[in-house]
């Protein structure tokens, strides 16, 4: 899966945070929901316009950013 098909940045929306393309839902929103115990199924029930692939794309996006982080 290529997360770039699902995640975009538009400086005019949500202060330029990475968003799920076509929505105002930030990658950080999805991560916070998961971190606070929501399941993928619960997120999809609360936000029926989202797909499982979009949720996975959020995780892939952050995984790639983390793998490129270097500590000096």
List the helices and strands and how they pair.
Elements (H helix, E strand, L loop, with lengths): L6 E3 L8 E3 L6 H9 L4 H7 L5 H16 L5
Antiparallel strand pairs: 1-2
Q: Can you give a write-up of this model?
A:
The protein has helices spanning 27-35, 40-46, 52-67; strands at 7-9, 18-20. With 72 residues, it is mainly alpha-helical. It has a two-stranded antiparallel sheet with strand order 1-2. A hairpin with an 8-residue loop joins strand 1 (7-9) and strand 2. Helix 1 (27-35) crosses helix 3. The model has no long low-confidence stretch (mean pLDDT 93).
Sheet with most strands: 2 strands, antiparallel
Low-confidence stretches: none
The ordered H/E elements are: EEHHH
Helix content: 40-55%
CATH fold-level assignment: Arc Repressor Mutant, subunit A
CATH superfamily: Winged helix-like DNA-binding domain superfamily/Winged helix DNA-binding domain
CATH class: Mainly Alpha
Gap from first CA to last CA: 31 Å
Radius of gyration: 12 Å
Mean pLDDT: 93
Number of domains: 1
Tally of contiguous helical segments: 3
Strand content: 5-15%
Q: Briefly note the structural class of the backbone.
A: mainly alpha
Number of strands: 2
**From the 3D coordinates, which CATH architecture would you assign?**
Orthogonal Bundle
Tell me the strand order in the biggest sheet.
Answer: 1-2
Which term fits the overall shape?
globular
């Amino acid at each position: 899966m290529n997360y770039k098909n699902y995640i975009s940045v538009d400086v005019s929306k949500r202060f330029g945070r990475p968003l799920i393309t076509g929505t105002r839902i930030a990658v950080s929103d999805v991560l916070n929901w998961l971190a606070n115990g929501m399941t993928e199924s619960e997120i999809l029930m609360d936000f029926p316009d989202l797909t499982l692939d979009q949720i996975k794309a959020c995780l892939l996006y952050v995984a790639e950013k983390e793998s490129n982080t270097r500590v000096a």
